[in-house]
Design a protein that fits this description.
Distance between the termini: 35 Å
Strand order of the largest sheet: 1-9-8-7-4-2-3
Largest sheet: 7 strands, mixed
Number of helices: 12
Order of helices and strands: HHEHEHEHEEEHEEEHHHHEEHEH
Radius of gyration: 21 Å
Number of domains: 2
Helix content: 40-55%
Number of strands: 12
CATH superfamily of the largest domain: Type I PLP-dependent aspartate aminotransferase-like (Major domain)
CATH architecture of the largest domain: 3-Layer(aba) Sandwich
Length: 345
C-alpha cells in the first residue's frame, strides 16, 4: 500500500451517521461505477470477496434456477461450493489448470441446455488465466442467460467493461488492484439484475441487496461500515479517476511484462497462455517443489510470493504485480529466484 493510504488508515475515525459521511458514500459509489464501467448500481459490503460471491447466490438464485459454472481452479470451485451450500441446481465446465474455455463448446451448452445463469471468474487467480469475458458476454446476451462475473482480481489490472460486455452482476474487493487492505467488497448490478431481485427472496439477513440499496440512497449502510476503509477507498478512487483507469491497467501490464522477460533462462515456465496483468503463475520442473521454493524465498530473502493449494501446491507458485510494486522490487525477486534455484537440492 502507498504511504498516503497507510497515513489515512492511522487517522481518527469520523462518526458515520452524519450528512458529511453520506456525501463520502455518494462519492465512493459514483467512482466505483467508473471502475466497473457501469451506469448501474453498486452495493458496498463489509466483507471479503467471498461475501460478495455469497450475496450473489442469496439474492439472485434459488432452487428454480439452472446454473452453469466455469470451474478453472480454486475460485471457480468457490462458485461450486456456494451453490452446493445453498442447494442451487448447477452443472459445471471443469477446465484443466490454465486451460481457456472453448467458446464453441460454451455456445453449444448455452444454446441447448436451458441454463438460467452463468457464473465465472474473469481472472482465475489460482492459475493466472484471464477469460475472454467480452466474448462470453456476447453469448449470454444471445441466449438470454443471466451473466455473473467475479472480477475481484482483474479490475484495475486488466480492461473490464461491465456494461459494454453485457455483464449483469460483477464483483470487486479492496485488496487486489485497488491496493487497499482487505475488508470491503462491492457488487455492481445492472437494470436486468435489479428486476431479477424483485422475483427472488433473499436467503440472507446480512447480504440483502434491497436493504443496502435503500440505505445507500441516503448515503448510509444498513449496518456498521468499515469506516477507516471508506476513508482510504475515497482517496484511492480519487487518484484512479485523476490518472484514468487506463493508466493503472498499463502500469500493471508493464510490470507483468518486465517480470516475465526477467525469467528468461530460468528453469521455470508460465502456466496459462492468456495471463492476467495481475499476477504471473509459474510452473516448476519436476525436481523443484513449488511450495518448498516459496518457503525458501521467504526464509532466505524475506521475499513473499503466493503458494498454491490442492493439486497445484507442489507444482505452481504465483507472483503478484499489484500494489506499490516497482521494477527494483522485481529485480530483487528475480535475483532471489536465481540464487534459490541454483542452491536447490
Amino acid at each position: 500500500m502507498s504511504t498516503r493510504t497507510l497515513a489515512i488508515g492511522a487517522l481518527q475515525l469520523p462518526y458515520n451517521r452524519t450528512e458529511q459521511f453520506s456525501q463520502i458514500t455518494f462519492e465512493i459509489i459514483k467512482d466505483l461505477k467508473y471502475l466497473f464501467g457501469t451506469q448501474g448500481d453498486v452495493v458496498i459490503f463489509a466483507a471479503s470477496g467471498t461475501g460478495a460471491m455469497e450475496a450473489v447466490i442469496c439474492n439472485f438464485l434459488d432452487q428454480s434456477d439452472k446454473v452453469l459454472i466455469v470451474n478453472g481452479g480454486t475460485f471457480g470451485q468457490r462458485w461450486v461450493d456456494l451453490c452446493i451450500q445453498h442447494k442451487i441446481p448447477f452443472e459445471q465446465i471443469i477446465l484443466d489448470p490454465g486451460q481457456p474455455i472453448s467458446l464453441e463448446a460454451l455456445d453449444y451448452r448455452l444454446s441447448s441446455q436451458g441454463y438460467s445463469t452463468l457464473l465465472i471468474n474473469a481472472h482465475e487467480t489460482s492459475t493466472g488465466l484471464i477469460y475472454d469475458t467480452k466474448a462470453i458476454g456476447k453469448l449470454t446476451q444471445k441466449y438470454g442467460v443471466f451473466f455473473v462475473v467475479d472480477a475481484i482480481s482483474t479490475i484495475c489490472a486488466d480492461i473490464f467493461m461491465m456494461d459494454e460486455w453485457h455483464v449483469d452482476v460483477s464483483l470487486l474487493s479492496t485488496q487486489k488492484a485497488l491496493a487497499l487492505p482487505p475488508g470491503l467488497s462491492f457488487l455492481a448490478l445492472n437494470k436486468k439484475a435489479k428486476l431479477r431481485l424483485e422475483t427472488k427472496t433473499c436467503q440472507s439477513y446480512y447480504f440483502d441487496i434491497k436493504v443496502y440499496l435503500a440505505n445507500q440512497s441516503r448515503g448510509q449502510m444498513p449496518f456498521t461500515p468499515v469506516i477507516g476503509h471508506f476513508m482510504m477507498l475515497q482517496e484511492r478512487l480519487k487518484d484512479i479517476k485523476l490518472h484514468g483507469i487506463d493508466f493503472f491497467v498499463s502500469r500493471h501490464s508493464k510490470l507483468a511484462e518486465f517480470f516475465r522477460k526477467g525469467l528468461q533462462g530460468l528453469p521455470l515456465s508460465f502456466l496459462p497462455n492468456s495471463p492476467s496483468n495481475a499476477l504471473t503463475a509459474i510452473s516448476c520442473p519436476e525436481d523443484i517443489d513449488a511450495f518448498d521454493l516459496v518457503k525458501r524465498l521467504a526464509a532466505g530473502f524475506n521475499c513473499f510470493v503466493a503458494p498454491n493449494g490442492g493439486d497445484l501446491k507442489h507444482r505452481v507458485f504465483r507472483v503478484s504485480h499489484l500494489g506499490e510494486q516497482n521494477k527494483t522490487d522485481i529485480d530483487f525477486l528475480i535475483n532471489a529466484l536465481k540464487d534459490t534455484l541454483n542452491n536447490f537440492q
